[in-house]
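Field log, afternoon session.

UNIT: design team B
ACTIVITY: writing a sequence onto a fixed backbone
BACKBONE:
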């Protein structure tokens, strides 16, 4: 029987505010002394009163508008109850039936089959993050658990999609696009590894032609795109197998176990009524003025999709190159800075997407901290264009620029790597190469045209790459017929 995969995602993003959502404690909590960024509000002490941080609403509105949502002008906060030691009040302040925004969408581009597809956003709401438990073990046995409340009260936005996603790959494309957007908006750093962006995936199998969705499981604990893809692939396989055997999928929450490469049972699914939602009596309903929404809408910066179009028009780049450049905001920024003083855009894009990304990746350095600045790269490319150095040598120089931070001009001068453009000098070397390789010359004479490339290679070796390959090729062609 034919069947389809159905996926809906719940994504939490930490908003980049300076202070927490309901108190003025700092949000700069990573690697800080445990419990040093806390106060009676985020520790949940009796009698402490929450006050809503306006900046949270602003960043939330920005995100909701960029995701084409309808904004609810009246917002209510709810208490969502559950017991866990990282939640000091015994409830989380969240939003339930009157969330910030509803009915949005994000359009993604799929390659196979090639199509644009709208993934609908069901809702977006604001809530607070919980603290963090640290479990101590000795010889593999649990000793005790410690709790750090520095993360308690960090503002979160929960983005919930409709079950419109039809494959694990589609889920990844959606998440990458969403991450690009929140980074462009400056509302979240989008880091899956550190947990500032987290994704829970709901997944089920629907039998073809069945009007109803299948029973879903929810998967948690994936902190990279790779883990999400693997966890979803695994879960599709597990559920299909159960259905083929005539068994039922049971509604439950499962956890991705990186080591075993499996999803494992965590708990059976709780339902909304288990949370005993009720309106938060310590916060007034929030009324959002239309003029505030309009102002934010006007100031939404250029997003990746528009930037890609602009790169294709202004810089004549292919859709593929443009996409890769705008994918990460600092990469696009780097390109634009360099393009101000260099107009071979295709070449520039190649060097950024090739050499620069290669070395940044190898050394695990972020684009913003690149030791080769946009203008330094332009300096190098101009030396190639002026025939001062060959492309091959430029690659070598680039590596040194990356490692030493020195300019191309200085490195070229010190290394004696300047290109030989003196025909006589090259001619001399060609004569030696032809003399030393009579068999290859013979091969060429008897019609094996490819033999000439070996001779070009020999000349390049003799000159340590300092000759211009085109010039060498032409000169060899001239000389070889004279023999
Ligand atoms: P719950 O009440 O269990 O939390 P919701 O209807 O609120 O379920 O949906 C939570 C998430 O699960 C949403 O992202 C939604 O798109 C997704 N979802 C709902 N039903 C299914 C299903 N049958 N298969 C896959 N995903 C689903
Ligand atoms: Zn606090
Ligand atoms: Mg729900």
């Amino acid at each position: 029987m034919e069947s389809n995969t159905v996926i809906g995602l719940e994504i939490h993003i930490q908003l980049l505010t300076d202070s927490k959502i309901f108190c003025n404690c700092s949000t700069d909590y990573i690697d800080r002394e445990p419990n040093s960024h806390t106060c009676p509000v985020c520790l949940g002490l009796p009698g402490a009163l929450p006050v809503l941080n306006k900046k949270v609403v602003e960043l939330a509105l920005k995100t909701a508008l960029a995701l084409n949502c309808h904004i609810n002008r009246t917002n209510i906060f709810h208490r969502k109850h559950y017991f866990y030691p990282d939640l000091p009040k015994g409830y989380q302040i969240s939003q339930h039936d009157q969330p910030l925004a509803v009915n949005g969408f994000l359009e993604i581009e799929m390659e196979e089959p090639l199509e644009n597809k709208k993934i609908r956003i069901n809702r977006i709401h604001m809530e607070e993050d919980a603290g963090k438990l640290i479990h101590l073990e000795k010889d593999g046995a649990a000793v005790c658990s410690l709790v750090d409340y520095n993360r308690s009260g960090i503002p979160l936005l929960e983005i919930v999609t409709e079950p419109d996603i039809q494959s694990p790959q589609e889920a990844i494309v959606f998440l990458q696009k969403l991450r690009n957007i929140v980074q462009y908006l400056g509302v979240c750093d989008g880091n899956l590894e550190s947990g500032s962006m987290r994704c829970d995936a709901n997944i089920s199998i629907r039998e073809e032609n069945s009007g109803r969705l299948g029973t879903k499981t929810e998967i948690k604990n994936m902190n990279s795109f790779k883990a999400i893809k693997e966890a979803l692939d695994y879960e599709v396989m597990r559920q299909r197998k159960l259905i083929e055997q005539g068994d039922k999928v049971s509604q439950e929450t499962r956890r991705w176990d990186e080591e075993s490469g499996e999803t494992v049972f965590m708990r059976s699914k709780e339902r909304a009524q288990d949370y005993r939602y009720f309106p938060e009596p310590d916060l007034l309903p929030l009324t959002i003025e239309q003029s505030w929404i309009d102002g934010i809408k006007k100031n939404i910066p250029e997003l990746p999709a528009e930037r890609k179009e602009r790169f294709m028009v202004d810089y004549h780049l292919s859709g593929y190159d443009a996409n890769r450049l705008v994918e990460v905001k600092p990469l696009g920024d780097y390109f634009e800075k360099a393009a101000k003083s260099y107009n071979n855009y295709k070449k520039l894009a190649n060097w950024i997407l090739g050499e620069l990304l290669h070395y940044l990746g190898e050394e695990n350095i972020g684009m913003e901290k690149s030791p080769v600045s946009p203008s330094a790269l332009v300096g190098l490319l101009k030396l190639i264009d002026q025939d001062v150095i060959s492309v091959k040598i430029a690659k070598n120089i680039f590596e040194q620029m990356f490692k030493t931070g020195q300019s191309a001009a200085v490195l070229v001068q010190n290394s004696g790597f300047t290109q030989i453009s003196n025909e006589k000098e090259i001619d001399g070397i060609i004569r030696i190469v032809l003399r030393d390789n009579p068999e290859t010359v013979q091969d060429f004479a008897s019609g094996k045209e490819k033999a000439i490339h070996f001779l070009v290679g020999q000349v390049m070796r003799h000159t340590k790459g300092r000759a211009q390959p085109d010039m060498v090729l032409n000169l060899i062609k001239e000389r070889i017929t004279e023999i």
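LOG NOTE: Residues 249 and 443 are 70 Å apart (CA to CA).
NEXT ACTIVITY: expression trials, pending approval
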